[in-house]
């Protein structure tokens, strides 16, 4: 999950040899980086949604199980740790 911390290095060109295409190349690199980060963001959002769904399912299971456990131990016996 360290992709967000990773920034791709930008190629540097000596100042005496700059061409008119250099800004276009930088713009293309920025566009690629934007697309890569957008894809990563969508993947992370999907992962968060799956985690939230799983947590909701676990909470529902807990809600169903707690009354059953209390019902079994109404005789005054302490719950085992």
List the helices and strands and how they pair.
Layout: H1 22-72
Based on CA atoms alone, the radius of gyration comes out at 27 Å
Strand content: under 5%
Give the N-to-C terminal Cα separation: 36 Å
The run of helices and strands is H
Structural class: mainly alpha
Shape: rod-shaped
How many DSSP E strands?
0
**Low-pLDDT segments:** none
Largest sheet: none
Summarize the amount of helix as a percent range. 55-70%
What's the mean pLDDT score? 82
Count up the helices: 1
Report a brief summary of the structure:
It contains one helix and no strands.
Provide structural commentary:
- The chain is mostly helical and 81 residues long.
- Helices cover 63% and strands 0% of the residues.
- It has one helix and no strands.
- The mean pLDDT is 82.
Defining traits:
single chain; 81 residues; mainly alpha; 1 helix; 63% helix
